[in-house]
């Protein structure tokens, strides 16, 4: 190496070393530390730095982070810029809450919160519920209370009993999913008494029920919908006292039996949810119908290939039946709640993420009931089965404890005297014409 080249390298290395030393010193100070008159920074900070000792200025952002101008030092930071800096607990690059990192850059944990709408459906068990994303409504049908029920309810800001001109016959232990290609809710199966399952399929568009193609009779089955292929999949259940282990798909009002080479053992009382990011449905639990075998296994169904595969998870929830599952799209995981273990009702909450189960253990916790995912408000909703209460309770499961009851699309839902985007609770959330920002809908 010639002398000129060597000198150049030495100059470059010296400059890098000085910069590294300055940044190391910077990293050892928090936002409240100051040096000289311009905040923490390089001892000889020059113009354009971030608060040097020789002539910088400092400022504090709305999130509490400190930045400087006119000297060397820490670059300006703000909550929502994707850079986690003290006192931020997290920074995921946005100002939305309920996605793991709040709008104030604090970590969020999932919680169950009871909603108290003015009206609630009468108490029931073994009913079914789905979220109609096209109309922003939860749809609930049927169930059992002193007999099979045949009523249709919807939930927006309140529960309302609907009066369709045509309705399915009274039933319980059926399943209900939402097919966005319709858009329509699809109901299948159930029981009306005795050991015989029902074979009816019904479609609901928000105004009326219409019959679909007849399927294989059953109740206590697991059912979900592949939103990518607009295909419903059903596994297991029971009919005439026999546990079933067959797989069926429903599309274009036609039921087709799938015959995979491997399949979960026959069972009833299992639950299933579809994850569109993996293209697979997740099934857990159930039992053989006579109580001799209770399942705690996890299976995944590949819609594209029509195949089942077991997943030997590192963590396994206790065996259960008659539990419920829903896919949380905002957090890309399946949420499972409760069920019955053969001796007692369960009130635990589990999440299936990255191929394994994690118990979240929020408190308080509801008693259990069907789940549906509200994609607009990024929350899982439960219509609770509560013994001794004349009305079914409504619970929501979401990240953070500050989720508003305000729906941000009309009315003062949370009773604080503020409506729509005037309510600070709605900042960053969908409104009638866009997203609430700065107190207006944009």
List the helices and strands and how they pair.
Layout lengths: L2 H25 L29 E4 L5 E4 L40 E6 L12 E5 L4 E8 L3 E8 L3 E3 L13 E5 L4 E5 L12 E4 L4 E3 L10 E5 L4 E9 L2 E10 L2 E5 L12 E5 L4 E5 L13 E5 L4 E5 L12 E5 L4 E8 L4 E9 L2 E4 L11 E4 L4 E6 L8 E7 L30 E2 L2 E4 L2 E2 L1
Antiparallel strand pairs: 1-2, 3-26, 4-5, 5-6, 6-7, 8-9, 9-10, 10-11, 12-13, 13-14, 14-15, 16-17, 17-18, 18-19, 20-21, 21-22, 22-23, 24-25, 25-26, 27-28, 28-29
CATH hierarchy, class of the largest domain: Mainly Beta
The tally of structural domains comes to 2
Helix fraction, binned, reads under 10%
Q: How many β-strand runs?
A: 29
Give the DSSP E fraction (strand runs of 2 or more residues): 35-45%
Number of helices: 1
* The CATH superfamily title of the largest domain: Kelch-type beta propeller
Task: Output the structural class.
Answer: mainly beta
CATH architecture tag of the largest domain = 6 Propeller
For the terminal residues, how far apart are their CA atoms?
Answer: 62 Å
What would you note in describing this structure?
A 4-stranded antiparallel beta sheet has the order 3-26-25-24, with no helix packed on it. Helix content is 6%, strand content 35%. The protein is mainly beta. It has one helix at 3-27; strands at 57-60, 66-69, 110-115, 128-132, 137-144, 148-155, 159-161, 175-179, 184-188, 201-204, 209-211, 222-226, 231-239, 242-251, 254-258, 271-275, 280-284, 298-302, 307-311, 324-328, 333-340, 345-353, 356-359, 371-374, 379-384, 393-399, 430-431, 434-437, 440-441. The chain folds into 2 domains: 1-45; 110-399, Neuraminidase.
């Amino acid at each position: 190496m010639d002398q000129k080249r060597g000198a150049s390298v030495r100059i470059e290395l010296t400059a890098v070393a000085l910069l590294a030393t300055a940044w190391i010193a910077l990293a050892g100070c928090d936002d409240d530390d100051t040096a000289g008159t311009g905040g923490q920074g390089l001892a000889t900070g020059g113009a354009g730095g971030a608060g040097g000792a020789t002539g910088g200025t400092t400022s504090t952002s709305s999130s509490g982070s400190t930045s400087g101008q006119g000297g060397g030092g820490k670059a300006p930071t703000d909550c929502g810029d994707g850079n986690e800096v003290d006192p931020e607990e997290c920074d995921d690059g946005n100002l939305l809450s309920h996605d793991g990192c709040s709008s104030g850059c604090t970590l969020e944990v999932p919680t169950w919160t009871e909603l108290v709408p003015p009206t609630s459906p009468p108490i029931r068990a073994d009913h079914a519920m789905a979220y109609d994303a096209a109309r922003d409504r939860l749809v609930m049908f049927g169930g059992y209370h002193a007999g099979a029920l045949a009523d249709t309810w919807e939930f927006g800001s309140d529960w309302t009993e609907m009066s369709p001109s045509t309705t399915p016959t009274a039933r319980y232990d059926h399943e209900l999913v939402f097919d966005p290609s319709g858009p329509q809710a699809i109901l299948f199966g159930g029981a009306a008494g005795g050991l015989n399952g029902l074979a009816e399929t019904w479609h609901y568009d928000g105004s009326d029920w219409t019959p679909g193609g007849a399927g294989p009779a059953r109740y206590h089955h697991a059912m979900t919908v592949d939103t990518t292929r607009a295909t419903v999949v059903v596994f297991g259940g029971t009919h005439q006292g026999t546990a079933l282990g067959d797989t069926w798909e429903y599309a274009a009002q036609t039921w087709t039996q799938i015959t995979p080479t491997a399949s979960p053992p026959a069972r009833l009382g299992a639950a299933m949810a579809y994850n569109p990011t993996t293209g697979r449905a997740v099934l857990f639990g159930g039992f053989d119908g006579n109580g001799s075998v209770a399942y705690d296994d996890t299976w995944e169904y590949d819609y594209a290939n029509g195949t089942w595969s077991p997943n030997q998870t590192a963590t396994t929830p206790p065996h259960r039946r008659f539990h419920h599952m829903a896919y949380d799209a905002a957090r890309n995981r399946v949420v499972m709640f409760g069920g019955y273990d053969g001796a007692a009702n369960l009130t635990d909450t589990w999440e299936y993420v990255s191929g394994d189960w994690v118990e979240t253990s929020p408190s308080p916790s509801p008693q259990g009931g069907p789940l549906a995912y509200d994609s607009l408000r990024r929350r899982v909703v439960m219509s609770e089965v509560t013994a001794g209460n004349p009305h079914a309770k409504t619970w929501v499961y979401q990240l953070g404890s500050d989720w508003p009851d305000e729906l941000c699309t009309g009315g003062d839902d949370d009773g604080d005297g503020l409506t729509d985007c005037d309510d600070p609770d709605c900042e960053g959330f969908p409104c009638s014409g866009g997203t609430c920002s700065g107190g207006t809908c944009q």
